[in-house]
Amino acid sequence: MASAQAGNRFEIQYDEDLLRRAVRVFVWRRCVLQQKTLWVIGFLTAGFLAAVAPMVSGEPNLLPLLAVVAAALPFVVTGLLWNTHHADTLGRFRNLPSKTAEVTVDETGIAIRSGPGQRMVGWPFVIEIWETDGFFMVFTGQYQFETLPKHGMPLQAVTRLRARAAAAEA
Question: Where is the YcxB-like C-terminal domain (predicted)?
Fold first, then answer.
């Protein structure tokens, strides 16, 4: 980013605990809180099938099995998503030669440069930003995000990310 302003370029330090927390936050918010409908439908379907199963005669009765599958589906989907993100995030982290990255936050977007290369995320491609006490999560897709630790992040960058998060929510 050629137009980087002072205070918008900084170095961040990644650590495994921070990335583990980011994956947990992602799974909890995206897969549990934002997917309440899936959970409700799964349990209602399981309850309905469990209630109807005793009324159905004949062998074999598959309704109890379907009830278990319906109730388990949200857990299975959440578990698969957690496993995928956990393995991918920590795998990439463990393969980094340096656990640091240089970040630039300016009017065009976010540039992240670390050992294996660099990535530019323009603001038009940012669909959502979450803030926690220790990091920002910048989403470029429903299930794709960059984690930016807040430790050592200049106030100007924090302010810009918060403004972008508020704009994305509006």
Answer: 105-158
